[in-house]
Amino acid sequence: MAGNINAAHRLTPPDISVGGLAKLASPIFVANLAVMGNATIDTIMAGRLGAEDLAAVALASASTGCIFMLLVGIVQGLSPICGHHFGARKFEQIGFEINQSLYLVLLLSIFGIGILSWTSFWTDLGGVTGRIASLASLYLIASAVAVPAALLNRVFISVNAAVNQPRITMWISLLMLALKAPVNALFMYGLFGLPELGGAGAGVGNAVLAWFGLIFYAGYFFKGAHYKPMHAKRWFGPSFAALKEQLRIGLPIGLSVFFEVSSFTLMAIFISRMGAVAVSAHQIVSNITSTLYMVPLSIGIAASVLVSQCLGAGFPDAAERITRRSLTVTVAIAATACCLLFIFSHFIISIYTTDMAVMKIAGTLILCGVIYHTFDAAQSVSSFILRGYKIAWVPMIVSGIALWGVGLFGGYNLAFRESFLGAPLGPLGFWIACACEASFWEAPPHFNRTSELITSAEPGAPRCGLRWKDAWRRASQYHRLHRSPSPVREALPE
Domain extents for the chain? Predict the structure, then answer.
């Protein structure tokens, strides 16, 4: 199908019902759980090899995680762009954007390979020597090899979501999860004559699976009938305008993810100074909230796709409705989950540990975790919705200030220094700060003002908050643009 739309084409909005949102979000949720499962397998298998192997994997995976999240976040800017094109039925333009993203992947790969190959920086930062440093260095080298494949996979994952094909990502993610333990074993234990790499074998396994997964993603794209209209007719040279647009959206997304991952990584490092009991309690609550976060993350990605498709098709009113609907569903699910977590907190914690000292601290931390997750769920979905409007800098700035300023800096002071609350609070100080940053900085302005942002049809609407003025203006521009009478639109279904 040609990339240009004329009046003969009838544009329709995507399915914006709760069922439509769930249909898109469910496979994304499963895929995210599969990714978490991969990390869990690495930890379990390394732990069985010994403390040194586990420490090496912990250091190397935390280091690579920060870099990977930054880079794949930048590439993720492709999703709302392709969502707009898909809604407008500009299928060939999607192929062009994928073409341009390859140049971006090349540049990001050079940076990622370079920084991860600088192994001495990471081992010195972690303060490790000897065998732990050697294992961590090998893990980092393997991760560097995986960078191009990981970024290219993210290109296809972003496009899959944007064109309503998240099930492909789900099935490939589940396949990678099924292969994770056997592939790890090949390199960790030196099976079939391969070198025995210990904990570093987990990094090599990740690299092998990344390139293996790329074969499947590329195969689906080039052979799948659904994607044929999206193939570029020729190879395009670098387009400054296209790359600028991808970076304009992708860079703040990458920085947002980096702020989040790095803040929690540093929090774990600081808490490690407080002893094994504090670390264990923190890790339990962190794991619980991270698992719960998979739900709003999946809803947020789905909502961003639907918003971008609605705008591309010329239905800003549908974008408004899916915004309100996704926020309502998210808050309802998060509140329900947190109520159940509060009621059954003792039972859930007992699954992780039987140590009474750890259980006591974890039981206290989980109260803050409940508050944090409820508000964090709302802000996460709101941020993704704004990205569907191609507004990425505002949530990045807000999350950066909140996570690093309030959560990390404020938490450090509460944890290690005397304050108006009395003596240093230890790990509780960090979780109090997290609850404060989520509730005060993120959720209310996002929840209330995101709805207003979507409904503000004219520039300079008086209800726009000062900090959000630019975001309102950009949303208003999109409303005016997509209310153009050029496409023939069908009536919006209820």
Answer: 10-238, 253-485
Q: Is-contact 189 49, C-beta < 8 A?
A: no
Angle between helical axes of 443-455 and 316-343 (0-180°, round to 10): 160
- d(C-alpha 389, C-alpha 146), whole Å: 32
Are 53 and 198 a contacting pair, CB within 8 Å?
yes
Residue 302's pLDDT is what? 92
Give the contacts of 475 (CB within 8 A, at least 6 positions apart). 389, 391, 453, 454, 456
- Give how far Cα 142 sits from Cα of 79, 151, 210, 215, Å: 28, 15, 11, 18
Q: Is 164 helix (H, G, I), strand (E, B) or coil?
A: coil
pLDDT score for 382: 87
Task: Tell me how far the alpha carbon of residue 1 is from its chain's centroid.
Answer: 32
Cβ-contact 255, 52 below 8 angstroms? no
Alpha helices per DSSP H over 314-355: 316-343, 345-352
- Please state, in angstroms and as integers, the Cα–Cα distance from residue 477 to each residue in 389, 390, 393, 453, 481, following that order: 10, 11, 16, 11, 6
Q: Are 292 and 373 in contact (CB under 8 A)?
A: yes
Report the percentage of the chain scoring pLDDT > 70.
Answer: 86
**414 in Cβ contact with 425 (< 8 Å):** yes
Distance CA 449, CA 456 (A): 10
| φ, ψ of residue 158 in degrees (nearest 5) | -65, -40
At residue 11, what are phi and psi to the nearest 5 degrees?
-95, 135
Q: Which one is predicted more confidently, 201 or 457?
A: 201
**Rounded CA gap, 155 and 213, in Å?**
12
Overall size of the chain counted in residues:
494
Kindly report which listed range (40-44, 145-149, 153-157, 297-301) carries the lowest average pLDDT score: 40-44
Q: How many other CB atoms sit within 10 Å of the CB of residue 469?
A: 14
Any idea what the Cα angle at residue 224 is, between residues 39 and 307, rounded to 5°?
Answer: 70
pTM of the model: 0.81
